Protein: HAT C-terminal dimerisation domain-containing protein
Organism: Pocillopora meandrina
Amino acid sequence: MDLLKAKDELALLKSVLEDMSTDIDNRHHNLYQEAVTIARQVAVQPEMPRIAQRQMHRNNAPAATPEGYFKINLTRVFLDHVLQQLNIRFQDDVFVCYKGISIIPSVLLATDPAWKANVLEFCNHYRQDIPNYAGLQAELLLWERLGDIIPDSLEATLKDIDKDAYVNIYSMLKVLITIPISSASCERSISSLRNLKNYLRNTMTQDRLNGLALMHAHRDMDFDLERIIDLFAELHPRRMRMANIL
């Protein structure tokens, strides 16, 4: 499932939850009856918790019946919380950032004819990063008539594009490839600090910590250690050369 499809599914989910919140009396009654049936099978009698004058660890709104109590203090609170978190976490700006993916030729062919509207919305959002916005429409017309090579990723498209002929699209691709798909890389870097900055390395300087953190985060990359040693020696030359004891 791509991100734009996920946006449609998310809008559908929010619509269903809003309908449940509007018709909460009937929806909660059906759910409560199912819960009562399950509770009866294990010999549990539904009842309200004790109502206290000062309650800090749970909702404490009074009600006449157990069904009304759980509707006010559980069902309605849960629906409001879920809708609030969905609106905070998945704002429209989040999906606008990824609409530029439609510029990838393989996605362009799959989302035709909506790809151009998605790209224009993305460019309007990042208009200050587009070098020649007036010529964007002309570039999109040329970009639509692609050749036989159809890249299927941002990296492949960025490698194959003629950056002199498609200046705006090239800038778009550079912006897109720097947008993280998730926060996993940031969290991975933070998690690595637990292994680096322990009580035995409490006096470590910031430069050394940054260097070790980068080496830990990119440990799958191959480095020329001999070249690194030579660069370090050139940056910090000694006044007296040590004799080769061998």
